[in-house]
Amino acid sequence: MKKLLVAPLLLVACAPALSNAPKPAPGQVIVRAVSTLPSSAGLPPQSPEHEAGIVGFASLSALLLVQSRYDTGLPSTYDAFSFPDGSKSMTPLSGKGDPVAVAIEWQARQKDGTNVVNVHWESRPLGGLFLGITVKASSTDAAVNTRAIEDKLLNRFYAFDGITFVASGR
To answer: Which residues contact 90 (CB under 8 A, 6 or more apart)?
Structure first.
């Protein structure tokens, strides 16, 4: 009986936190991003928007770094994702002092060099602890399921501590 009462209480308790979430634009997902670092880490306090931007950027960076530990959706004939143009593959979308907003380009090449898979990822603070995330994959290889790559990358992103899926416009 207690279990039956706990679920509605949890829903009611969480509703205010997510009820002010922005609606996603077409092709965009909304996540809530909060820092999971302890206060003893010595980082200065941030506004919710700044915190969300930093957490989103750090999680996105980790997504690329740990890609060997999860299924990215790439066929086995492709190398791992990398930055095709080095540091130029990352474009700041925010001004200095503003919450971190970034566009990042990833690319994976087929091992024989014949085809590529490109991923464009944008992360933009939307106010409070909310981020708008847009992921678009494309390929020169018609056999590659780009939607599956987008979904697998997003699902792995949602699994990071501090990232909570809120809504989808996909």
So the answer is: 83, 102, 103, 104, 105
